[in-house]
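Sat 14:20. Reprocessing the chain from the morning session after the first attempt stalled halfway. Input below, unchanged.
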Amino acid sequence: MGAFAAMMMVTIMANAALRGGCLAGLGLLVLAAVPASAQKEAPASECASSSPALAPEFASWTGRGGLSAAASLAGVGAAQLQPGRAVEAGLLPTPQVHYALRPEKPGGTVSHGGLFRFHVAAAGTYRVALGSAAWIDVVKDGKGLVSTAHGHGPDCSGIRKIVDFTLVPGDYLLQVSANAETSTGLLVTRKP
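Finished this time. Tokens:
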């Protein structure tokens, strides 16, 4: 829940407690405030002195090699992701990228993106982890796939978001769009 939504919920519950004059409303107010504070990201000062324990499927996140995105389908063969191996993905200015499908959030002329390809050998839930708030689309046979879950990585890990997809064996296209920077951490990995 965002800070604004949490603040609104606290305000509404406080008003309800005052109007009803009941302590139960105040109890709910306290309970509602706890999740909002628990969802805050760790301050940078805390991150400098700690390194989080990563689940085994994210173990390669800290040793990312570089990989440049393709600008179109014609160059995607050189932008091959290996599931389970994290990369620092070099991205291109959005106007240079020719997406296979128009991204739901393409970003503006000052954003960055690109295309990558990956192969799935076994069916299962696969996670795409990103080091930024970029938008991703997973494409199979010319159609965008619907994600099954969204989440965040552990505090201080550098994993900003995780998006899950149910995939079957085959080749996939991963489109990254609307990234503010020229690169982002990127990992496709199978969920255990």
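The chain is about 20% helix and 35% strand.
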